Amino acid sequence: MPNTFHCPLHVQREVDGLAVVVRAFGELDQDSVAQLSNELEVALAMATSPFPVVADLSGVTFFGSAGLNELLVRQRQARSARVPFRVVAAHRIVLRPIEASGLEQVLELYPDVDQALAAGHSGRTAG
């Protein structure tokens, strides 16, 4: 019998000082990416340069290609708005697809939210 357990995505947005943090928990795939997309879109509309939008994916349990595409779209949107866009990729479930696609060269990756918020204007990579 196939495993039909599905951990739905839960997304929450919060303001931390002048930065906006969007936290995702659960499975990020083509069926759930709209939830993350909506929250990131609002976060980027709220953001004011030079304060970042941080996408915290440390609670993500599955990360599919729809998630990769969403990060790339939002990174481009943030760049156009001159708002730093930082991604917390704390574990291999998220890091492996990012690295396999070469997006670690494009995205600002951090191991936790505190480091993403504390960073200056140059990105670092999680590891």
What does this structure look like?
One of its GO terms (molecular function) is anti-sigma factor antagonist activity. Residues 9-120 form the STAS domain. InterPro entries: Anti-sigma_ant, STAS_dom, STAS_dom_sf. The radius of gyration is 14 Å and the shape is globular. By secondary structure, the protein is an alpha/beta fold. 34% of the residues are buried. The protein has one domain: STAS domain (Transcription Regulator spoIIAA), CATH 3.30.750.24. The protein has four helices and five strands. Residues 122-127 have low confidence and may be disordered. The protein has helices at 33-46, 65-81, 92-101, 113-118, and strands at residues 10-16, 19-28, 53-63, 85-88, 108-110.
Radius of gyration: 14 Å
Task: Report how far the terminal alpha carbons are from each other.
Answer: 37 Å
Please report the number of helical segments. Answer: 4
CATH architectural label: 2-Layer Sandwich
Shape: globular
The portion of residues assigned to helices is 25-40%
Amount of beta strand: 25-35%
Mean pLDDT: 90
Low-pLDDT residue spans: 122-127
Number of strands: 5
CATH topology label = Transcription Regulator spoIIAA
Number of domains: 1
> What is the CATH class?
Alpha Beta
What sequence of helices (H) and strands (E) makes up the elements? EEHEHEHEH
Taking the sheet with the most strands, its summary is:
5 strands, mixed
Structural class, by secondary structure, is alpha/beta
